[in-house]
């Protein structure tokens, strides 16, 4: 069936709904222009010319996106807006990385959303947001998962725009912000868009760059601050430094912090195609890590500072630390701890993994007494921000000489 069809919608309809509808999913070309006909309320009727073919009875309608009327979350920033053309009903169980349009039903914990540019925007009931399905692990916030069957509602799991179903939460957390799903975001061919299709590939021309790994005892143990301080210290010493966050849940503030500290390039797991990394397989985690490191090494940094989220007992962190292929890529380790007991326990585990632990850092360094306890218990230097920036970071790293040959890089201590 071939032919032309013209559909008319008023300005008020477009403004109210932020979308406009077409009778078929098989649109090949479309043009939107003013028809010259005015509505009784003084607006201009829009005329949409469409070329359609092979229309089947019962085909779901397409709704074309008016991006000006939508609030796009940070999770979508790697997908060009022009590729997000329409939505179609979500009649199947969503997958990690599926991008959807949803209407805010009620405001709970999250009253703001982080935009594609990293700006914090308030959201209100009735707003339409573009979010991405993903799992979340946060011991002091929400535990949430992608639904395993078709749903019409879901929860906002993070300010960065990860959505799913909350199954548990910290006692301090309130009710999650509730969303009503309007449909899956599609490309110009009517195919649902998944974030994984936009992940950066492995670079085969990657150069070198020593990897400094920052891990911690738990959430909020000071890992991100440690990464930023290492970046500052090395950048101020004249080194080219890159930074990446390999695991976690989508949010832009950590990456912006790394950049503000002097990182010349910053990437995270969203750049690898995932809105979050909770419940990924080991193969998926290693692909994320290897792709990000290769992309950063392509710009020949002297150092790459890597953060792994949460604590060393968390599922994905543990999987990476236990993997010999991951461990052999790590040149230095800094461990962020909340107190001396966590520091001693973490140090023992990292030594058992054979990782090159260089120093302690994190929240415990805010207390001189806790710092002394940790140093006595572990025999490691416990560096606060001031000591790192005063030259101890560089002195510590310079004690080790990187040996590069035909075999994978390794380190030996200089006598």
Describe this structure as you would to a colleague.
- By secondary structure, the protein is an alpha/beta fold.
- The chain folds into 3 domains: 1-66; 70-198, no CATH class; 210-413, P-loop containing nucleotide triphosphate hydrolases (Rossmann fold), CATH 3.40.50.300.
- 23% of the residues lie in helices and 32% in strands.
- The protein has helices at 11-17, 223-236, 253-260, 282-297, 315-322, 324-327, 340-352, 368-378, 385-398, and strands spanning 2-9, 19-22, 27-38, 44-53, 62-65, 71-72, 86-88, 99-106, 112-114, 120-122, 128-133, 136-137, 142-145, 153-156, 162-169, 178-186, 210-216, 241-245, 265-268, 303-311, 332-336, 357-361, 400-403, 410-413.
- The strands form 5 sheets. Strands 19-18-20-17-21-22 form a 6-stranded parallel β-sheet, with helices on both faces. Strands 8-11-15-14-16 form a 5-stranded mixed β-barrel.
Write the layout of secondary structure elements.
Blueprint: E1 2-9, H1 11-17, E2 19-22, E3 27-38, E4 44-53, E5 62-65, E6 71-72, E7 86-88, E8 99-106, E9 112-114, E10 120-122, E11 128-133, E12 136-137, E13 142-145, E14 153-156, E15 162-169, E16 178-186, E17 210-216, H2 223-236, E18 241-245, H3 253-260, E19 265-268, H4 282-297, E20 303-311, H5 315-322, H6 324-327, E21 332-336, H7 340-352, E22 357-361, H8 368-378, H9 385-398, E23 400-403, E24 410-413
